[in-house]
Amino acid sequence: MRAVIISIGTEPLLGQVVKTNAAFLSRELVALVIEVFYHVTVMDDPVRLKQAIEDAEKRVDLIVLLGGLGPAKNDITK
C-alpha cells in the first residue's frame, strides 16, 4: 500500500511552522508497512487542495490530510 501526506496551511509554506506531524506520521505508516510515496504542502486554498487530492488519487491507495483546522476563516478542511 502506498500513501501520500498532504499538509494544509500557508504557514508551513512561509516557513512560519515546521511540519513535524508529517514526519511523525511517516514513521508510523512505515512501521505499519505502508510506503509513504510523497509529502506535499498546499496553502489554504480549496482549489489547490482539490488539485492535490485529485493528483494523489491517481498515484496512491491512502491519502492523509494534516492541518487546515484552525479558527481562521482560511482554514478550509473543517
Helix content: 25-40%
Q: Could you name the ranges where pLDDT drops below 50 across 5 or more consecutive residues?
A: none
Spatial separation of the terminal alpha carbons = 27 Å
- Pattern of helices and strands: EHHEHE
Tell me the radius of gyration.
12 Å
Strand order of the largest sheet: 2-1-3
**Biggest sheet architecture:** 3 strands, parallel
CATH homology superfamily name: MoaB/Mog-like domain
Corresponding CATH architecture: 3-Layer(aba) Sandwich
Q: Find the count of extended strands (DSSP E, 2+ residues).
A: 3
CATH class: Alpha Beta
* CATH topology grouping: Molybdenum Cofactor Biosythetic Enzyme, Chain A
| Number of domains as seen in the coordinates | 1
What percentage of amino acids are in beta strands? 25-35%
Shape: flat
**Overall average residue pLDDT:** 87
Question: How would you describe the overall organization of this protein?
Answer:
By secondary structure, the chain is of the alpha/beta class. It contains three helices and three strands; from the N terminus they run βααβαβ. It has a three-stranded parallel β-sheet with strand order 2-1-3, with helices on both faces. It starts with a strand and ends in an 11-residue tail after the last strand. The mean pLDDT is 87.
Provide a quick synopsis of the model.
The chain is of the alpha/beta class. Helices cover 36% and strands 27% of the residues.
